[in-house]
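> forwarded from #structure-qc
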């Protein structure tokens, strides 16, 4: 505390200011214009869906409240109508979001189930999720990428794997189960996971990838 002298010569204590000065002022309550500005700013900064933007704006209204008009009354802010209008103008596009998210997740080695979960959590409708789900080739490529990154199956140290199998079948089985579980958690299909983990060589996996080319038109987008 800082000490200051009063008019009678005694000392009193004055509260210290915080390191950032006076307390931050409370943000102003929202009206239609400020809510629209918030929505536009959010859509410009983040890839989003209508549902995510709606949840963001609803949270901001709860935090800041709604401004009163000149008569001291508050007007209900129509978040759904605002989001729908921004979607019409192209600021929010669930299909573009789904396409981007699918490419991002599969490009990092995650499977179709994780893509589905992410799109569902973002509020993307079932029809759009189905339309932009990974195709067969894209799913296989993502599974192979994950196996390569984690050095699973034929992408691991073959000499070490062979020694494990020769010396301790129980350890080998547990290693395989661990790799299977990790791939399944990443959202990959069981048949894809088993094929990759049990493949005798990386070359066989590459052939397996080539076999899926052209099978699903979704792989072309």
């Amino acid at each position: 505390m800082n000490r200051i002298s009063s008019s009678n010569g005694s000392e009193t204590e004055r509260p210290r200011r915080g390191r950032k000065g006076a307390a931050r002022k409370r943000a102003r309550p929202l009206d239609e214009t400020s809510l629209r500005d918030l929505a536009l700013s959010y859509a410009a900064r983040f890839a989003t869906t209508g549902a995510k933007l709606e949840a963001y704006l609803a949270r901001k209204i709860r935090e800041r409240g709604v401004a009163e008009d000149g008569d001291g009354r508050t007007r209900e802010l129509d978040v759904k109508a605002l989001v729908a209008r921004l979607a019409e103008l192209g600021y929010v596009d669930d299909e573009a979001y789904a396409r981007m998210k699918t490419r991002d997740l599969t490009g990092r080695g995650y499977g179709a189930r994780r893509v589905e979960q992410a799109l569902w959590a973002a509020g993307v409708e079932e029809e759009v999720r189905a339309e932009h789900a990974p195709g067969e080739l894209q799913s296989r490529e993502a599974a192979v990428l994950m196996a390569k990154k984690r050095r699973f199956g034929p992408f691991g140290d073959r000499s070490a794997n062979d020694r494990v199998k020769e010396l301790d079948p129980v350890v080998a089985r547990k290693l395989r189960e661990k790799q299977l579980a990790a791939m399944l958690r990443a959202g990959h299909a069981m048949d894809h996971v088993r094929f990759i983990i049990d493949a005798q060589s990386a070359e066989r996996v590459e052939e397996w990838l080539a076999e899926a080319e052209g099978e699903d038109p979704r792989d072309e987008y």
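QC bot note: Residues 95-220 form one domain. Residues 40 and 203 are 50 Å apart (CA to CA).
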